[in-house]
Amino acid sequence: QVRLVQSGGGLGQPGGSLGLSCAGSGFSFRSYYMAWHRQAPGQEREFVANISGSGALRNYAESVKGRFFISRDNARNTVYLELTNLKPEDTAVYYCHTRPGYFDHWGQGTQVTVSS
């Protein structure tokens, strides 16, 4: 049974930093891409970043490129998202995601609020 458990997030100030973590279990973690998506109020869920199983390949949405950094620790079955130079428009619920088969699997979601 695939399970993704998120932690981190919270309230950050413009220009500040926050971190998110997502621990995976129930699948061969190191074999699969992991991704972060986000959903702001009243908007559709959007892609933020992903990382290959080995960690060698990373992709970012243009809106976060150069500010957010995705990484993973396969020994801990955990993927991370470091959010820096935060902007108010980064306010959203952030979800980790993987697809080790036919179905999408999502974390429970973590609120990130950027406000002064």
List keywords for this structure.
single chain, about 120 residues, seven-stranded mixed β-sheet, four-stranded antiparallel β-sheet
Q: How are the elements arranged and paired?
A:
Blueprint: E1 3-8, E2 10-12, E3 18-25, E4 34-39, E5 46-51, E6 58-60, E7 68-73, E8 78-83, E9 92-98, E10 105-106, E11 110-114
Parallel strand pairs: 2-11
Antiparallel strand pairs: 1-3, 3-8, 4-5, 4-9, 5-6, 7-8, 9-10, 9-11
Describe it for me?
With 116 residues, this protein is mostly beta strands. It has strands at 3-8, 10-12, 18-25, 34-39, 46-51, 58-60, 68-73, 78-83, 92-98, 105-106, 110-114. A hairpin with a 6-residue loop joins strand 9 and strand 10 (105-106). It starts with a strand and ends with a strand. The mean pLDDT is 97.
